[in-house]
Amino acid sequence: MRNRGYEWQALYKGIVMLAKRTCAPRYQEGFTLIEVLVTIIILAFGLLGLATLQSKMQLTEMESYQRGQAIVLLADMVQRISVNGSNAASYVTGGTVGTGDSQPTTCAGMGANLDICEWSNALKGAAEQNSGGANVGAMVDAKGCITQVQAVDTSTGVCQPGVYRVTVMWQGMQPTAAPSLVCPGVAASNTLRAISSEVSIGLPTCS
Fold first, then answer.
1. Is 200 exposed, middle or buried (0-12, 13-18, 19+ CB in 10 A)?
2. Which of 17, 20, 169 shows the shortest CA–CA distance to 98?
3. What is the DSSP letter of 163?
4. 100's torsion region: left (phi>0), alpha (psi -120 to 50) or beta?
5. Do residues 107 and 114 touch, judged by C-beta distance below 8 A?
C-alpha cells in the first residue's frame, strides 16, 4: 500500500509538470507586424529622399551644361567683334538673335552680317543635332544681342573708344534671382539666365 501511494504521488507530480510545460507562455521570435511596418515606412522615406536628390542633381547638371554652352557662345561673338573691330558698330542688333529670329539657316555674305547669322544658328543649337534632326547644341530658348555702351569719339584730346556689350540669355531649370542685365525689350524673370561681356575697340591712330 505504501509503495502504491508513492506511485500515485509520482504520477501526480508528473501530470503537474506536464501541465506547466504545456501551459507555459511561448515567447514569439522574429519581427512583429509593427516592426515590419516601421521598417517599410523608413525604407519608403529613404527611397523618396534618394529620388529627390537624384532629381536635383539632374537639374544642377543641366544648369551647368547650359551655362557652359552660353560661355562658349558669348566668347565666340566677343572674338568676332574684336577681330573686325573697325566695323564693330555693324554688329549692334536692333533686337535679339537666336531662338525666334528671322535669320536664315544657310548663311551667306561676309563681315558682320555673316557673323551674326552664324551666331544666330549657333544659339539655335545648329552645331549639334539629335537622331531626329532637331538642334540640341545650345541652351533652352537661347537668344543673344549686341548693344553699344559707349560711342566712338575721335575728337582731338578725347580719343574715346567704342564699347559694346554682348549678352547671351536662356531659360533656366528652376527659379533664381532675376538677372540685372538683359537684352533690350526682354523682361527679366527668375527663370531667365543671362551673361554679358563688354568689348572695347581701341583707337591706335587717335591722339
1. middle
2. 169
3. E
4. left
5. yes
Give me the sign of the Cα torsion angle 137, 67, 151, 201.
Answer: negative
pLDDT tens by residue, 79-97: 999 999 989 999 999 899 9
- Model confidence pTM above 0.85: no
- Write phi, then psi, for 160 (nearest 5 degrees): -90, 120
The grid coordinates of residue 132 equal 531626329
Tell me the pLDDT tens digit for each residue of 96-154. Answer: 999 999 999 999 989 999 999 999 999 999 888 778 778 878 899 999 999 999 998 88
Nearest CA-CA partner of 151 in 140, 160, 138: 160
Give percent of the chain with pLDDT exceeding 90.
51
Amino acid at 44: A
For the chain, how big is the Rg over CA atoms in Å? 39
Residue 19 in grid coordinates: 501541465
Q: Are 154 and 194 in contact (CB under 8 A)?
A: no
Q: Are 174 and 141 in contact (CB under 8 A)?
A: no
